[in-house]
Backbone:
């Protein structure tokens, strides 16, 4: 991918809505992981894609690196008005995507979190997070640290098609195992569950048994949501890779959310 270095005024974004946290920190804008179901493509809308086709390709191929993120963050953390609220890191763009191997911005960010004893939630699909084990364990000794890893499938061939540049799922479980004794809370994000692709009992059982073996503190499942650019991109992806699923998906996704009956069935399977 192409990197573009940018400077930002603020590091933290206030989020509204039903989340258990109110602040988001994204070190990158755009993400090289290339997940076909990525719901964050819209966040790149105001970046011109340059030559070639606009829209989804820009999100995956052009990553903006917020080079001064640490300075911007420190300003916010040392403000008198800051109340040490939980910061969700990488909610939109994975902080441990390939660009991070080159830039190493997360280390500066974590050093600040340690200095200001600020609680964090980090979600990722990459085992690059293991590079920062030392800092995360230190932070977990001072305050609340939650490390969540997203896994959708244990079928590696399917994983390569769905999430081309993310770490293999097996490696993501190695992250959960590694952090088990670090003092951090560990969680598995089983999301999105993709109808007809990752929702079969064999896949879900494999993920659950690996999660149990990794002794995660919680599992958070979620189903695929399709609207706007994500919907367009995902249907295009299906037509190329799984044309036989186009019709079934159109039936399940008349709206953005999944058909209620199907949803009830899948959650019934998971909780039973």
Residues:
């Amino acid at each position: 991918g192409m990197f573009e270095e940018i400077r930002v005024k603020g590091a933290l974004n206030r989020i509204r809505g039903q989340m258990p946290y109110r602040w988001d920190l994204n070190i990158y804008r755009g993400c090289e992981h290339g997940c076909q179901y990525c719901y964050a493509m819209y966040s790149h809308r105001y970046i011109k894609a340059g030559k070639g086709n606009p829209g989804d390709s820009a999100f995956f191929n052009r990553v903006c690196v917020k080079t001064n993120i640490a300075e911007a963050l420190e300003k916010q953390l040392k403000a008198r008005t800051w109340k040490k609220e939980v910061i969700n890191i990488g909610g939109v763009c994975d902080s441990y995507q390939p660009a991070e191997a080159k830039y190493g911005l997360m280390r500066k960010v974590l050093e600040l979190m340690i200095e200001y004893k600020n609680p964090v939630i980090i979600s990722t699909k990459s085992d690059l997070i293991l590079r920062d084990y030392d800092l995360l364990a230190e932070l977990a000794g001072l305050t609340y640290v939650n490390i969540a890893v997203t896994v959708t499938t244990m079928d590696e061939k399917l994983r390569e098609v769905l999430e081309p540049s993310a770490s293999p799922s097996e490696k993501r479980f190695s992250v959960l195992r590694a952090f088990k004794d670090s003092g951090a809370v560990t969680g598995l994000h089983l999301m999105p569950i993709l109808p007809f692709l990752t929702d079969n009992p064999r896949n879900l059982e494999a993920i659950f048994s690996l999660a149990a073996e990794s002794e995660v503190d919680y599992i958070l499942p979620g189903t695929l949501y399709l609207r706007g650019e994500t919907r367009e991109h995902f249907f295009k992806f299906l037509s190329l890779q799984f044309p036989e699923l186009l019709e079934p998906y159109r039936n399940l996704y008349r709206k953005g959310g999944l058909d209620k009956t199907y949803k009830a069935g899948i959650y019934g399977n998971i909780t039973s």
